[in-house]
Amino acid sequence: MPSTSLSFASRDAHRAWLAAQARLPAGFRCGATRFAFTPFEVAKPARMTVTVIALDQPTDAFAAMFTRNAFPGAPIIVGRKRLAAPRLGAVVVNNKISNVCAPGGVETAERICTEAGKKLGIASDEVLPSSTGVIGWRLPEDAITANLPAAVAALQAESILPAAEGIVTTDLYPKIRRADLAGGSIVGIAKGAGMIEPNLATMLVYLLTDLDVGRDDLRAALTAAVDGSFNCMSIDSDTSTSDTVALLSSRRVPCPDLAAFSQALARVCADLAEDVARNGEGVHHVIRAAVTGAPDRDCARAIGKSVVNSPLFQCAVCGNDPNVGRLVCAIGKEVGRNRPGLDLSRLRLTLGGRTIFADGAFRLDPSAEGALVAHLKGAELYASGPAKDGVFTPPIDFPPHERAVEIGIDLGIGNAMGTVIGTDRSHEYISENADYRS
Amino acid sequence: MPSTSLSFASRDAHRAWLAAQARLPAGFRCGATRFAFTPFEVAKPARMTVTVIALDQPTDAFAAMFTRNAFPGAPIIVGRKRLAAPRLGAVVVNNKISNVCAPGGVETAERICTEAGKKLGIASDEVLPSSTGVIGWRLPEDAITANLPAAVAALQAESILPAAEGIVTTDLYPKIRRADLAGGSIVGIAKGAGMIEPNLATMLVYLLTDLDVGRDDLRAALTAAVDGSFNCMSIDSDTSTSDTVALLSSRRVPCPDLAAFSQALARVCADLAEDVARNGEGVHHVIRAAVTGAPDRDCARAIGKSVVNSPLFQCAVCGNDPNVGRLVCAIGKEVGRNRPGLDLSRLRLTLGGRTIFADGAFRLDPSAEGALVAHLKGAELYASGPAKDGVFTPPIDFPPHERAVEIGIDLGIGNAMGTVIGTDRSHEYISENADYRS
Fold first, then answer.
1. Nearest-CA distance from A155 to chain B in Å?
2. Which H or E run includes B259?
3. Is B202 noted as a catalytic residue in this protein?
4. Residues of A with CB below 8 A from B319's CB?
């Protein structure tokens, strides 16, 4: 369940809420700069933003998790090395090109770290690089290093909003969540709208805190928080090559309660994960599949993922069509493939709290059908329609939110459970990913 | 590679080709009838077709394979029992409702077999039932049994076309393929357009032959043919609850060469599989991912499936956008998840025969980009555009065909290979599955 139930009526109200979320913890600054460049591969002008997040003093308290995709981007390869470094002092992020499988990508990422380090007065290996965007293209290294001074000059200690806005690609809105506790705070930002089925970590997420938690505790807390949030969501089943979650502490504020810190961190991650899902490319409905009574947690999550990743079920939800047969198909597909022999005779399904399946058969009639349609319509973010040119573009601009399609899947076998967040599939997703060239 | 390279300029030419494919083998008849009914669950009138395929004499030479989905339809449950029966004399198929997880579904299927058996003068357990359509709804048993006499009265020994047309749901065209050998023939028909990632068997496929091959040889040949055809394709990764492939021999013509029979059967299955993919809901491009140099066949197929099932790559292909980074992402997703540690350093990728990736990096520039766009456009079946009401409907009406997006994935590790057939993802798929209620 989301921790907030606000629903903004206007872009202004959303901006005001974002500004309040965005206050930086003590000891951090951020800045960003935007510039034009021409990708080598297509020779067509484009625009890129470089974002810098810097600590006032490099810290030994940092954690990071990266994608399990077998073709990690160059920044991931460099970032894994950074985990062993004594301190981290800054993160440098560019959008538009992800620096994955591009010739000389690792060397390019390292040189950008060196340049950024010079400007910030810290060592190369105290800079964590991050990139997101098109896979396979080369970073415009000269343009980036030429514009680094402007990003550094823009550093300020008030708001993380410039960073939240700087790291996005097709995102509809900046994603910022915070938790305040014990006189300090945890503030997180996320980039992500497509190529989202995180595996171990996710898209780009930066979590900053001034609470003094040491490196080992920080890494354990991050692993736990990611496991129950970003690892339990999928927009399109495509695990990115650039997934990164980094957590940095400036150690400015004593942390009296590690459990409370971990809980707050988990909450921030869960909120950001839902923000990312709701901002998924072309999303009209967020789907929350809560699996209970499972023999183990992995089984619960795998069944939840199979449901939210079923293209046919996604389309049905998009059309407010309670074609719940596709729900059973998705469960049976996963069990048949990966858990053959699992006893499904006690399966119970609910949609919007209403039991629709029990004792091996559906419980459907015209009145149930009407109630299910009403639940789907109630969870719809906006109605779809093509613009005059035939292209679909989403009109919405507002988290937080609590509307979601609520699916209950009780296997009736064991005590394990898992909740997975997913999305529907719409014309807007196709327009985003097919109608336009990247 | 497809065995035909025809491309029909008109619906008439396609119909003439279908008529030639459709000649029934000796010893078979088929007939179909269409009628109105009202589903209990939505109380909205609909139309259904019941199709009967009958042997002149029940045969002991039959084979069938069924879905691995853990929620098999009632006809699958009954069909698995039929495999142990001494003889089969007929198949009765209805579309519109698949009889899956519907109350009393198995008993309904059995009663329909009994009624059909009475009309045909054969035993209940000599009738194989099949159903396709909405999951979870009840079959209109009374309407079906009331219309069985009309379907039986329509039986004729000339053409399988009425059956090929009778079993479809959202299909654009009837799918019929044949092989003639040794004075006999194998003729197959298929239904399928969505919920297609067969697992062991597929959608609805009926293969009839007059060649005299005994039960054991028939079953072995079917297993081999299905393995390399229907099990190597995916339209939307959704393994159906109703997948069925049945093969019946009337044993009228001596079969001098079992190997030639098996080869011809495999060819018919491969052609039908490609027909089904090309008829996939909203398909603009068929994608053929040929994986070579793999350590084993399962690995080759899993990587091919990951590519053709990647929503982002599907969308890029739909838009004739050579966003080949998404291809690498899909390979890395599969390897990272299921084959961590697999050495990908010798990976070579081709698109349309052109090398685009080698030595760990892409080989892209504006001229390569232009050639890749040309290959994608050359493989496009039709250009997309919404109708005046904003709904997308496909205009095409013609297999056979050989246009496909040709992807080569050489892992450079071992000697195993596998080719997977898939499709792009378009507005038409969304319109088919979201804009309209089933």
1. 33
2. helix B258-278
3. yes
4. 433-437
Q: Say what the pLDDT of residue A438 is.
A: 39
Domain for residue B2, yes or no? no
**pTM score of the predicted model:** 0.81
Same domain, A376 and A233: no
CB pairs under 8 A between A and B: 268
Question: Is the model's pLDDT at A252 over the cut of 70?
Answer: yes
Q: List the 94-153 stretch of B: residues with Cβ below 8 A of A.
A: 98, 100-105, 134-137
Separation between Cα atoms, residue B218 and residue A92, nearest integer Å:
63
Whether residues B360 and A101 touch (CB distance < 8 A) is answered with yes
Percent of chain B at pLDDT > 70 equals 91
Comparing A266-280, B239-253, B385-399, the range with the smallest average pLDDT is: B385-399
Q: Is A380 exposed, middle or buried (0-12, 13-18, 19+ CB in 10 A)?
A: middle
**Which tokens hold the place of A38?**
């021409």
Q: A358 is in which domain, residue-wise?
A: 286-435
Q: What is the CATH number of the domain that holds B342?
A: 3.10.20.340
CA distance B226 to A424: 32
Domain count within chain A: 2
pLDDT at A199 over 60: no
Higher pLDDT, residue B196 or B234: B234
Alpha carbons A116 and A71: distance in angstroms, whole number: 26
How many other C-beta atoms can be found within 10 angstroms of the C-beta atom of residue A369? 19
The interface pTM score, or ipTM, of the predicted complex is 0.78
Report whether B215 contacts B61 (CB < 8 A). Answer: yes
Q: What is the mean pLDDT of residues B231-242?
A: 77
DSSP string of A56-89, one letter each residue: EEEES-EEEEE---SS--HHHHHHHHHTTSS-EE
What CATH code is carried by the domain that includes residue B190?
Answer: 3.60.70.12
Of the residues B278, B297, B315, which one is the last residue of a structural domain? B278
Residues comprising chain B, all counted:
438
Residue in B closest to A40 by C-alpha: B365
